[in-house]
Design brief:
- Helix 1 (7-19) packs parallel to helix 2 (31-49).
- The strands form two sheets. A seven-stranded antiparallel β-sheet has the order 7-8-9-13-12-11-10, with helices on one face. A six-stranded antiparallel β-sheet has the order 1-2-3-6-5-4.
- 29% of the residues lie in helices and 20% in strands.
- The protein has 396 residues and is α+β, with helices and mostly antiparallel strands.
- The chain has eleven helices and 13 strands.
Length: 396
């Protein structure tokens, strides 16, 4: 047997070596067919898997699965998924909280208050629907704060505590700018304690009095007393927390001018803006409530020049989120239920027989409306409140 390779076999062998094969089948009768098959197998498998085919002397070996290649067959570890912005939970919103639970006796007890104003008691009108503005402490509680007052018939003071974050810009500057910050009211000591702001108001001893050494001395006395009040409450507020309700707008309600046309149409006359009395809400604490969107006061009046017209005085409080008055509030004011279209509940106090006028308190959603005045009958006042309840600018 001739073991030498023919030229054709040598060419086939060279091709297989270049293709990566290791073994060579001996020459035989079917050498040409086997060589051609081997080359085809190398080409097919190389295209499919990018690998070489090994063979034995007895038969060509065909790979049943591709071998790993440096570029395409090495398994890389699956990347760790990165949380998307939408899958990240926002920080928990703090629960609403009122400073000291809204308890004025936790701020100053009765004996302490009497030490600053002899025989002073917690003012029954400080958080009443009769007060100006109505239920101020409940209103400021929406901001996480409280306002407490102690008084006698001749003297009195109040302490307001609010979260610093709830104060509109410029509040403290306004407090400091003018000591006489409201009719008969002095804005005196103030301080930031932790995350809370505290301000002390006092009845003005000089209000409606001629200047005199006695009046000057009285004003100096209350200035010093206000600082003492602040020093007394400060340790009780250390670490205290106030958090506004999340529904608080944080911006003023719409201006009263948006209701001018409604009121004029209801009155059947031209009306002037403003309530004809000094007994209206004012001062820095009220301004804070207005700026935060938890209160608004609007007033109108009309004074016809002929005998055929009817004079009108109309005052109107909007207090979002307050809801219904308590049973004690309603009993104190002798308010009785009344049907007013567009409201979920309403109560009326009719004082027309003794010249006190009409007061209607109505609920629209969680917003409390307090409407009062003179110059119209009960049915007309009910119609006005119904119109106001249906106006989107009222409860917005």
């Amino acid at each position: 047997m001739n073991d030498e390779l023919t030229p054709d076999e040598r060419a086939a062998l060279r091709a297989r070596i270049v293709g990566g094969a290791r073994d060579i089948k001996p020459a035989g009768a079917h050498r040409g067919a086997w060589v051609a098959g081997s080359i085809a197998a190398v080409l097919v498998v190389g295209i499919a898997g990018g690998v070489a085919v090994t063979s034995t002397r007895s038969a060509p070996q065909v790979a049943t699965s591709p071998s790993p290649s440096p570029t395409s067959s090495i398994l890389e570890p699956a990347p760790t998924p990165t949380p998307s912005a939408s899958s990240v939970s926002p920080p928990a919103r703090p629960e609403p909280a009122v400073v000291l639970g809204g308890r004025c006796d936790a701020l100053l007890d009765a004996d302490e208050a009497s030490g600053f104003v002899q025989d002073a008691v917690a003012s029954p009108f400080a958080n009443s629907i009769r007060s100006t503005p109505p239920v101020q402490n409940d209103m400021l509680g929406l901001l996480g704060g409280l306002s407490c007052a102690w008084s006698t018939d001749l003297d009195g003071f109040s302490v307001t505590v609010l979260p610093s974050a709830a104060l509109p810009a410029g509040t403290v500057d306004a407090w400091r700018a003018d000591e006489r910050c409201g009719p008969g009211e002095l804005c005196l000591a103030e301080k930031t304690i932790g995350d809370l702001w505290v301000g002390v108001n006092w009845w003005d001893p000089a209000y409606n009095r001629d200047p005199s050494p006695e009046v000057t001395a009285a004003v100096e006395r209350v200035r010093a007393a206000a600082e003492d009040v602040l020093s007394t409450v400060e340790p009780r507020l250390a670490g205290a927390v106030g958090v506004p309700r999340v529904e608080v707008a944080g911006a003023p309600l719409q201006a009263c001018a948006v209701l001018d046309a409604l009121v004029s149409d209801w009155a059947g006359a031209d009306v002037e803006t403003g309530y004809p009395s000094d007994n209206i809400a004012s001062g820095p604490v009220w301004d804070i409530a207005v700026a935060a969107g938890v209160a608004r006061f609007c007033g109108w009046s009309s004074y016809p020049t002929d005998d055929s017209g009817r004079a009108l005085a109309l005052g109107f409080y909007t207090q979002p989120l307050l809801g219904e008055p308590t049973a004690a509030d309603l009993e104190e004011r002798s308010l009785r239920p009344i049907e007013v279209p567009g409201t979920s509940a309403a109560w009326i106090e009719d004082g027309t027989s003794n010249g006190a006028g009409i007061t209607i308190i109505a609920i629209v959603g969680e917003t409390r409306l307090t409407v009062y005045g003179n110059g119209r009958g009960v049915d007309e006042w009910v119609d006005l409140v119904s119109r106001l309840a249906g106006d989107p600018d009222v409860a917005a």
